[in-house]
Amino acid sequence: MSTSAIRPLIILGTRPEAIKLAPVIAECRSRLEDVNPIVCSTGQHREMLAQVLGYFGIEPDVDLKLMQPGQSLVGLTAACVEAVDQVIGSHRPDCIVVQGDTTTVMASAIAAFYRRVPIVHVEAGLRTGDLDAPWPEEFNRRVAGIVATCHCAPTIGAAEALYREGVLESAVRVTGNTVIDALLWTAEKERAAPDRWKEKYPMAVDQSLVLVTGHRRENFGTGLSNICGAISDLAEGFPELQFLYPVHLNPNVRGPVTEALGGRGNVHLLPPASYPEFVWLMDQSRLIITDSGGVQEEAPTLGKPVLVTREKTERPEAVEAGLAELVGTDRVQIVQRAAFHLRLPQAKNGMSHAENPYGDGQASRRIVEWMLSEVTA
Ligand code: UD1
Ligand code: UDP
């Protein structure tokens, strides 16, 4: 290892951050002469994070173990700012790297700003323009956007949103989204050895699978209840199909979903699926119904029609390209649009064929190369 190698502190806390930073960590580790990363888990998530880190073989150098069952946004934010500040103080990194829009990102950005440490923000510039949707993620991203040094925008649209906020063009690069790097690597691996998943999911055959996820805070209550109502209607209307829903561990999700959908023959409620498992399930699906950010980016890459159960999305590219449909959380609307896609022969579904706008699998390389040119040891 060279003594002139830069030392970025790569901070992650939740499932999607780990998935999207795994290729960045791998890229750093392939260039140890130039970059020697310190990986810090805030532990905002526990089991769902461990699943991903295990799959990608990442052992954090620092684990802050912050998750509390039913944690509050304030409690987590306060603990995270304090704990990350101490890690920065003891490790003295040359920069921090954060990804996306979680509390981990916002709190780490605040801590690094106060310590005057440069911030590389991966997946920068996503905006709906509405602080209530997604809540609180739109706020988290904007906070990171105020203080970041390098804004790694996944798309041209995201870069333009940053310019509109006054970010200098020289501080923005369009890199693509690292989720595509992770997805392509994983899909190739799982397609080559599908037997364990075929055995675990005998129902996932003959294009009979509808994959569902839902966990957004702004959908808690009525929205989530409507989504579950729609799944229930669809399961009844399409008894030959299997509806598979790996349920997020947030008690505000798990409780209502289990209550609304438990005990139905063709609705399968599962614990969160490991990443390779979930990628395989997406690959087998006929239709995906989700409010997830990451899944909106992945489905088009796999050529899967996706209905987005949100009123607004900060990822408009797939909708504009005809690869995703924003259906909101109205029960009737979800049922109608899902039924439309389920009745359409796959070959005739345009959503399965357009080109994915989120990346080409090279985002991590671009990000690390840019970081190396901007950050000094
Ligand atoms: C968080 C992010 C959200 C992201 C999502 C990805 C914030 C404010 N929210 O939401 O942007 O889309 O992660 O999944 O940062 N829990 C467990 N085990 C786990 C993970 C969560 O039991 O491995 C339970 C705990 O009770 C925890 C609760 O879920 O307190 C909420 O976790 P939290 O990270 O605060 O919010 P998410 O809804 O997961
Ligand atoms: N995912 C997973 N297992 C699941 C559900 C999702 O591995 O049971 C993956 C999915 O492929 C995507 C990421 O988790 O890469 C999205 O995470 P999530 O929906 O929790 O968060 P968001 O992207 O909405 O912030």
Please provide a written account of the structure.
With 377 residues, this protein is of the alpha/beta class. The chain has two domains: 182 residues, Rossmann fold (3-Layer(aba) Sandwich); 164 residues, Rossmann fold, CATH 3.40.50. It is 46% helix and 13% strand. It is built from 15 helices and 13 strands. The strands form two sheets. It has a seven-stranded parallel β-sheet, sandwiched between helices. It has a six-stranded parallel β-sheet with strand order 10-9-8-11-12-13, with helices on both faces. Strand 1, helix 1 and strand 2 form a beta-alpha-beta unit. The longest helix is centred in the N-terminal third of the chain and has 19 residues. It is globular, with a radius of gyration of 20 Å. The site of uridine-diphosphate-N-acetylglucosamine has 25 residues, from helix 1, helix 2 and helix 3.
Short description:
The chain is an alpha/beta fold.
CATH class of the largest domain: Alpha Beta
Q: What is the number of independent domains?
A: 2
Question: Approximately how much beta-strand content do the residues carry?
Answer: 5-15%
Main sheet record: 7 strands, parallel
CATH superfamily of the largest domain: Glycogen Phosphorylase B
- CATH T-level topology of the largest domain: Rossmann fold
The percent range for helix content is 40-55%
Q: Which spans have pLDDT < 50 for at least 5 consecutive residues?
A: none
Strands side by side in the biggest sheet = 3-2-1-4-5-6-7
Which class of secondary structure composition applies to the elements? Answer: alpha/beta
Which small-molecule species are bound to the chains here? uridine-diphosphate-N-acetylglucosamine, uridine-5'-diphosphate
What count of helical segments does DSSP give? 15
Q: What string gives the helices and strands in order?
A: EHEHEHEHEHEHEHHEHEHEHEHEHEHH
Global morphology: globular
Compute the CA-based radius of gyration. 20 Å
